[in-house]
User: Fold this.
Amino acid sequence: MAENPEPVPGILLDETTVYTLGELGRASGLDAERLLRMVEVGILDPVGGSERRWRFSGRSVVRLQTTLRLQRDLGINLEGAALALDLIDELAELRQRTDRLERQLFG
Amino acid sequence: MEYKDYYEILGVARDAGKDEIKRAYRKLAHRYHPDVSKEPDAEKRFKEVKEAYEVLSDPEKRQAYDQLGSDWQAGQSFEPPPGWEGSFDFGGGGFTGFGPEEFSDFFESLFGGGGFRQQGPFGAAGGTRTGTWGGPGGFTGRGEDQHGQLEISLEEAYQGGERRLQLAVPELDPQGGVTQRPRTLNVRIPAGIRDGQQIRLAGQGSAGPGGGPRGDLYLAVHIKPHPFFRPEGPDIYLHLPVAPWEAALGSSVRVPTLGGPVNLTIPAGAQSGQKMRLKGRGLPGSHPGDQYVILQIKVPKPETEEQKDLYRQLAQTMAFDPRANLGT
Assistant:
């Protein structure tokens, strides 16, 4: 593709961005079966009762991408990746809290 | 170009077995994986470790690398020996899950752009994408997603804007080798983006093999430290220095916010560390953040006798014991 002078609008992957199962499949290139497995083990956490009504937040895409990297680089299975993702989130939260407390203590 | 000592990078002996190399890789990968590690050079270290493992875990590549001999020192200036090209056939490997852009010039000079395996070090688990065989072009599949970092100022995060990015996108040439294609992209940054959030640019990743659709480009946003504002999610924190009399008597002071200065009323008797909220003055968004102002009382140093007298007068008049509750 040649130079692209037109600004490319990015989609912000936060809670306000919503994907259906089909859209998530297209965005990730993964088939429905693998996405269902990711829901099953808790990597993806859609809202909505049935598969047809499932809605995934932009954060799901970030979790999905991280899962693919962890699988590829570390050979982690899906259950392990789900656990790793939760621990990574918790670690980030704790790091943030430590930073905040350190700043309060030492200025 | 610098010689890379792959054995040293993995911390194994030159005669290490396959399992030992795998164990060393796993250990270092856990430590430096950019999704987990917060060490400042984690990404660089992880790339080195991956590259070392890519070579040492593949018998052919390891053998070729070993033929360079053991006299080389890491960082030593290196050129491939004459006749190196063509003595090994690493071509036609296609993409590894790692993405060829991750490897060093040293690797490229030894193994070329085609020296990648089809899969990541642990098989296709992470890299398999849906695709179809058949048609005039053979295999048609979706291109690889690309990942990048975007460092922006806090002001850019607040206002949004455009950023020109220079990218090297790896693409398959008709012979199946990998070429780096330079691209310039103007990326629109949404106003109110927060540190650590990601932007997805649909269809801006690598081209798909056989004319398949392009992958996506993911940009992780990092907000550069600001001299006085500190973002925390959508909220902004500011330590505001105030004079003792401003805190004691109450006052109205000018406070900077990302949207411009505002007047803040400090109540009489305010104390250091007291937190005040400026509602909606944080990063914009569907749930806009607030700005928190933390008061910091600064004590002016008396320079003249007259100024010292003022403090003495204060000491006599106030009957104030800041250590009253310490039991001394």
